[in-house]
Each structure stands twice: as structure tokens, then as C-alpha cells.
Specification:
This protein has 256 residues and is of the alpha/beta class. The chain is 40% helix and 17% strand. 41% of the residues are buried.
Length: 256
């Protein structure tokens, strides 16, 4: 289902449903469409919010994990959201981690799926390779356990980005920022309940990364999904939503 993209000031976002806020942050080559099944499911119980992240629209000086965190923080303040359940996939998870470390009072819980922040495999030393669509198709397919999920539409989006010199420079800037901004010494400070949902076949942030997050974040639980790569909410949405439902049920039970 296509959802209306709303605009409030300079911020564009999806907002569906009522209840406590579930804020979703996508990754470097992600889009709002990554969360379609998740929005459909959780808009019945939560106010599901997905901001359009200005990944390739910030000036080069602020094209970084920290720049994105500041943007999301301004968005949260502008919309007056509170008691947020914060979820991030890939680079979006990294931004979520920085946000919860800097503004813990606003965040109720944290959900990470294939998050960077500790370790991630890049797209290869020669990436992004311009003008070679099959190369882009193969690299995009590595995101998923089933490469068929790298649809023509998705491949075309990545291909268009990688054929724009300025966008390529910004992609490289964000990737380097993610590698530099390693949070291994900080994330043990996170006190909020944390749900880690990982694909057992993730080659970008492999399973050992999920285990390390689980070891370092005190109040965390880790769930692995078989035959699943780097974007579990896209690849196995029913299983992903079931795990997240269980996590939210635990949070409710703890309040009583």
C-alpha cells in the first residue's frame, strides 16, 4: 500500500495510526517502501512514523552519521514526539544508536536490524562502479538471502544514484563516516529495552555483529531469522513483525 508523504516545514515523512510512536529509520540505499509490511501491521497499535532521510541532500560537511542524527533529532523536536520506540535498519540503526546515546530520555525502546555501528562489510573496494548495471544488480542482490528480491525497480534506483558523481561522493562520505563512528565503547550505556533482529545469512553485518550488540547492550534480546539477509523487515516481514509483536507485549507486561 502506498502511503501519503506528509510535509511539515522542511520535513517529509509518513505518519500512520495512533498510539505510542514507532519511528523507523532506513539505510543508505533504503527507502520508505522498505517498511511497507511493517507499517501495515503496526499502524493498528502504534503511530508509525517514517521520516525521509536527506542521505544525499545534505551539504558534504554534514553528510555523516552525526549529521543524520542531528536531522532526526530536529524532526522529533519539531513534531513533539515522545516515548518513542526507535527502529533502524543498516545505517538507520547506526543513526538510531547515536540518537539514543545523545537523547535517551525521549526513547522508550530500541529495535535494530542489521545495524552498522560496530562492523560492516562495504560494497567492495571498487564500489560504486558507474555505468555497469549488472555489477550494480549483483551488489544489490548481496543485501538479500534471495537475490531475486533485488527487483528491477530497486536496481534502477541504485544505478541512478551511482551514476551521479555528487551522489557517489556523498555515499562514500556516509560509508566512511559509519566506519569511523564505531560505538563499541559507548553502547553499553544504553539502558532501554533493545530488540535485535538479525538475518542468519546477512553478509553485510554478519551474525557475529548481532551477537556483539547483544553482549554489549545490557537489556537486549537477540533473534536470528534463517534464510534471511540484511533487511529482514523486507525479506521475511511476517516473522519480523511476529518477533516485534512479542517484544512489545513484553514491554506492556513489564509496565503492569
Amino acid at each position: 500500500m502506498a502511503y501519503e508523504i506528509k510535509q511539515d516545514g522542511k520535513f517529509k515523512f509518513i505518519e500512520e495510526g495512533e498510539g505510542e510512536v514507532l519511528l523507523l529509520l532506513h539505510g543508505l540505499f533504503g527507502a520508505l517502501s522498505n517498511f511497507g509490511d511493517l507499517i501495515d501491521h503496526f499502524k493498528k497499535t502504534h503511530k508509525v512514523v517514517v521520516p525521509v532521510l536527506p542521505l544525499l541532500d545534505m551539504d558534504l560537511l554534514h553528510t555523516s552519521v552525526g549529521g543524520l542524527q542531528k536531522f532526526v533529532s530536529r524532526f522529533i523536536d519539531h513534531r513533539k514526539y515522545d516515548r518513542i520506540h526507535l527502529m533502524g535498519n543498516s545505517l538507520g540503526g547506526h543513526v538510531a544508536l547515536v540518537l539514543i546515546l545523545k537523547s535517551p530520555a525521549k526513547i522508550n525502546s530500541l529495535i535494530l536490524a542489521g545495524s552498522s555501528g560496530l562492523f560492516e562489510n562495504g560494497m567492495g573496494d571498487t564500489y560504486p562502479k558507474r555505468g555497469d548495471k549488472e555489477y550494480i544488480r549483483n551488489k544489490t542482490g548481496l543485501t538479500f538471502y534471495d537475490p531475486a528480491l533485488a527487483t528491477d525497480e530497486l536496481v534502477n534506483e541504485v544505478f541512478e544514484i551511482t551514476n551521479n558523481r555528487i551522489k557517489v561522493i556523498k555515499i562514500i562520505a556516509l560509508a566512511k563516516s559509519a566506519i569511523r563512528n564505531n560505538l563499541g565503547e559507548e553502547i553499553s550505556q544504553i539502558q532501554q529495552p533493545t530488540c535485535l533482529i538479525w538475518g542468519n545469512n546477512d553478509t553485510i553485518t554478519p551474525p557475529f555483529v548481532g551477537k556483539e550488540f547483544n553482549r554489549l547492550i545490557p537489556n537486549s534480546e537477540l533473534h536470528f531469522i534463517d534464510k534471511c539477509g540484511h533487511a529482514p523487515m523486507m525479506e521475511v516481514p511476517e516473522e519480523f513483525n511476529k518477533i516485534l509483536d512479542g517484544f512489545f507485549e513484553k514491554l506492556k507486561a513489564e509496565k503492569v
